[in-house]
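Two entries, shown back to back:
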Amino acid sequence: MMGSMARIVTGIAVVCSLTLGGGLANAADSAFKYVGASKCKTCHKKELMGDQYGAWQKAKHSKAFETLKGAKAIEIAKAKGIAGAPSEAAECLKCHSTAATLGPKDYDKKPLSNSDGVQCETCHGPGSAYKSKKTMANHDKSLASGLIVPDEKTCVKCHNDQSPTWDTAKYKLANGTTTGFDFDQAAEKIDHSIPKDVKGKYIEVEKQRKGAGGGNDDDS
């Protein structure tokens, strides 16, 4: 897989502005359940893998919920006639917190927290069936097990003109025009790719570095 799509397929997720339309997906009717970023980091915090978890922590997605507590968010919510704190309003939470759109039946084991903001599975799909190292090492098997390769349709559920912070001049295109959202440029901003020499052969590379029979990380 080439270009920006390859850059984001194994990572974590673009900041969802205080949005009044769209929203993050709910998995209530899915056989695949949410495991949370804390589970994803078992492998995706490793330097060998590219530390996607660390990239997510530094990016705006992980802080999406916290932005709702700021003065700007409170001002916007008031202007939009939203009663109460934006950090408690469904209109805001649906694009600022993965957990806010989920219920008890959506979780594999532990529930997610609003404080996690927009976490890995918002863009990559609930990971209960593809979380194991052996499954993730096989791209086709991962897709069959619920892994989502994010595309523009994934992002515009929240990054759209219904957001009160939508800026039609945010991204400049090659033809000189501007747009409020451009998938390729947005993906570049949150690049969290697996190193080329590791992608698709992580288990083998890990064993080589640790010695034959090594790399027995949690595959559950």
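entry 2 starts here
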Amino acid sequence: MQKLDRCFLEAGARYKINPNLLKAIAIVESGVNPKAISKKGSIGLMQVHRFWISLLKEKGVDVKHLMDSCYNIMLGAYILRTHIDEMGGDLWKGVGRYNAKSKRKQASYIKKVKLALQMLERRYGIRRS
């Protein structure tokens, strides 16, 4: 994950999100697989949903760029920041919204991301910022 570390750090700095949280989301979303494509059409490490893809196409963004890991991470961080802001700055509500609309699914997703973040902390001695 070393090459990707720089991407997570840059995206985290740009959107003021803990890069380790972004890594945890990538673990939950795709297993850190840059070529992941879901049955619902979500793409890449951060599983950018087709809803965002439609909006991006309108802005001239080429979908093939979503297979670039760093680009996908940066876009995922942008989307997460958008949801955090929509949720009044509540980080975990924003994380839940990144994945789902229903409160039940959001709660389940938040638990998965928190577990992935804890696993990263234990494995690499990372502390939350």
